[in-house]
From TrEMBL, chain A:
Entry keyword annotation includes Iron: yes
Domain ABC transporter, chain residue ranges per copy: 2-236
Similarity remark: Belongs to the ABC transporter superfamily.
GO molecular function: ATP binding; ATP hydrolysis activity
SMART domains according to UniProt: AAA
GO biological process: iron ion transport
One GO location term (cellular component): plasma membrane
Species for this entry: Azospirillum cavernae
Superkingdom as given in the UniProt entry: Bacteria
Topology versus the membrane: Peripheral membrane protein
Keywords: ATP-binding, Cell membrane, Ion transport, Iron, Iron transport, Membrane, Nucleotide-binding, Transport
Keyword Ion transport: yes
Protein known as: ATP-binding cassette domain-containing protein
TrEMBL record, chain B:
Pfam families: FecCD
GO aspect biological process, one term: siderophore-iron import into cell
Membrane protein topology class: Multi-pass membrane protein
Record's keyword terms, sorted: Cell membrane, Membrane, Transmembrane, Transmembrane helix, Transport
Subcellular location: Cell membrane
SUPFAM superfamilies the UniProt entry points to: ABC transporter involved in vitamin B12 uptake, BtuC (SSF81345)
Chain segments annotated as transmembrane: 42-65, 77-98, 104-123, 130-151, 220-251, 263-283, 289-310
Molecular function GO terms recorded: transmembrane transporter activity
Main location: membrane
Protein name, as recorded: Iron ABC transporter permease
Family as reported in the entry's similarity comment: Belongs to the binding-protein-dependent transport system permease family. FecCD subfamily.
InterPro entries: ABC_BtuC-like, ABC_transptr_permease_BtuC
Keyword match Cell membrane: yes
Length: 252, 315
């Protein structure tokens, strides 16, 4: 369970998050949606202790993120950010292997190697395993970083726009893998998404943010309504149901 | 993995060859005396080579930038300013008369002190690494301009003394200072080696490293303190040789094709030993002792680095 209480954030006098309170249950795929500048990434980075907590409290599985040693937290929760940046002389296998760092401080056991192979296979990276990161495309690198996060084996996975740079085939594959991690391995995935149709198709729960506040929070059926989407994004979209599946036509 | 290992052993063999040549070429006269002299010089060369190579790897890892050298922290500029100020105040003769132990200690303390005074507050306030580096670079410019101002004011004869003190000199290192230098460098190198796996993760940048359980600001502070200590020791011992680091790290990376620190740290250190010891031997016996090694390393290193940049290909 992720418990967020009274969390506020401001930078240089601009308030980014206003008094956010939110409780997210374990074992679900939770999508954070909202327009640019809503505070989605900021909220995610606070939960992942990527920036210091200014006001309020955040606890993951009862561990306060600002007071738990980083190493202990790294066995419970991991995060992947939009700009992975790094592209040096490092093979995909080495990168994915870093996911085991919180467990063995860099020493790989046979069990770790099996997990690395599993992650490589799962994310369709086996053929690229010995390639250097700097030779990969943006989308391939993105998958390698998500595979590393998977390999870390944490119960909580926070992903900031993991579908960036991915083509439709890999975006779908990524969402299906995340879905499978939730259903078969009982993991909790919190994901910032821009395309609300992916949220409609794969999320158990949607949290909608705007201007640093939570506007709505509930199942996709509850959130993806014409009125609420207009409140969020400022224009009217068509919400259809095709073969039982919600589909938002957000382009004219 | 074994291909990479072979490359590391290649670098080790090269370093060993240079060491053997340094000790053995052109031996004559009182053997014990000559060997002792050469061993002392060898120790100075090896110690500086390792310190500079390790410091450069660490700084490049922390900043995620492969073309930075520790000289961005401005410590070598502070050293030069200190030397110049001493010549300015005491004159050439007075400068030569100062106890080398005092000079060493003062230089070491000044560099470590400035690093702690400037960088620790910035790190403690969680300001960005780049702001810290920029501060270091600006300090470096300040120290360099003060140095050139003082250099203009001093007597031309004293200026010649200063010129001699501005480049690395491996011939006039005292045994007792060398011991202090070796202990500090060894301690720093062992610490870096023990951090090698954490350094691999730090190289991924703050967000990914934090996600993997690194306490970023504490780890960065420790690594930068290590860099400052290594640079300060080697500079106080022989003078500034920062550019060497850039070249040997680039060479080590090119040779092994990996940025993993378990490989990069020893390879860079071994190549640095080969370059410094080999260069010194060549200067002494091939070129009849003409030219100072520091000058040659900066010159050849610069050319080599340009070559590496020009031929860097995206595989």
């Amino acid at each position: 369970m992720i418990e967020i209480e009274g969390v506020g954030l401001s930078h240089h006098g601009t308030t980014i998050l206003h008094d956010v309170a939110l409780t997210l249950p374990k074992g679900e795929l939770i999508a954070l949606i909202g327009p640019n500048g809503a505070g989605k990434s900021s909220l995610l980075s606070l939960v992942a202790r990527l920036q210091p907590l200014q006001r309020g409290r955040i606890a993951v599985d009862g561990l306060p993120v600002d007071r738990t040693p980083g190493r202990d937290l790294a066995r419970v929760l991991t995060v992947m950010r939009q700009d992975t940046g790094f592209a040096g002389r490092l093979s995909v296998r080495e990168l994915v292997g870093f996911g085991r760092f919180p467990h063995g401080r860099g020493r790989l056991t046979d069990g770790d190697r099996a997990l690395i192979d599993e992650a490589l296979a799962l994310f369709d990276l086996t053929a690229l395993a010995d390639r250097d990161l700097m030779t990969l495309s943006g989308g391939q690198r993105q998958r390698a970083f998500v595979a590393m996060a998977f390999c870390q084996g944490t119960d909580y996975l926070l992903l900031d726009e993991p579908l960036n740079n991915l083509d439709m085939m890999y975006a779908r594959q990524m969402m299906r893998l995340l879905r499978e991690m939730v259903e078969q391995r009982g993991r909790t995935v919190v994901i910032v998404l821009h395309d609300i149709n992916y949220a409609a198709a794969y999320a158990d729960r949607i949290v909608a943010l705007k201007d640093g506040r939570i506007v709505a929070h509930g199942s996709p059926d509850d959130i993806l309504t014409v009125d609420l989407l207009e409140r969020l994004y400022g224009y009217r979209m068509q919400v259809h149901r095709i073969d039982g599946q919600l589909l938002v036509r957000h382009h004219d | 993995m074994s291909a990479v290992e072979r490359r590391v052993w290649l670098a080790a063999g090269l370093a060993l060859l240079c060491v053997v040549l340094h000790m053995a070429v052109g031996l004559r006269g009182n053997l014990a005396f000559v060997l002792e002299l050469r061993a002392l010089k060898l120790l100075a060369l090896v110690q500086v080579a390792v310190a500079v190579a390790v410091a450069t790897v660490l700084l490049q890892t922390v900043t995620g930038n492969r073309i930075l050298t520790p000289s961005i922290m401005g410590l070598d500029a502070l050293y030069l300013l200190g030397q110049t100020a001493m010549v300015f105040l005491l004159g050439g003769l007075g400068f030569a008369g100062i106890d080398p132990r005092l000079k060493f200690l003062a230089a070491l303390l000044a560099m470590v002190g400035i690093a702690a005074a400037v960088f620790l507050p910035i790190l403690r306030r969680h300001l960005s690494l780049y702001r810290m580096l920029l501060t270091g670079a600006l300090l470096g410019i300040l120290f360099r301009s003060l140095t050139s101002l003082l250099a203009r004011l001093i007597d031309p004869n004293d200026f010649a003394v200063l010129q001699g003190a501005s480049y690395a000199n491996f011939s006039a290192v005292r045994g007792d200072l060398l011991v202090v230098g070796c202990v500090l460098t060894a301690a720093g190198t062992v610490t870096a080696w023990r951090l090698r796996h954490a350094l691999d993760v730090v190289a991924l940048g703050p967000a990914a490293a934090t996600a993997l359980g690194i306490d970023w600001s504490r780890q960065i502070t420790a690594i930068l303190a290590l860099v400052a200590m290594l640079v300060a020791v080697s500079t106080a011992l022989v003078g500034p040789v920062v550019f060497l680091g850039l070249v040997v790290v680039a060479l080590a990376e090119r040779l092994t094709g990996t940025q993993r620190h378990a490989v990069l740290l020893p390879t860079a250190a071994l190549i640095a030993v080969a370059v410094l010891v080999g260069g010194q031997t060549l200067l002494q016996h091939g070129l009849g002792g003409a030219g100072a090694l520091g000058v040659v390393v900066e010159f050849v290193g610069g050319l080599l680095f340009l070559f590496l940049l020009a031929t860097e290909r995206r595989r």
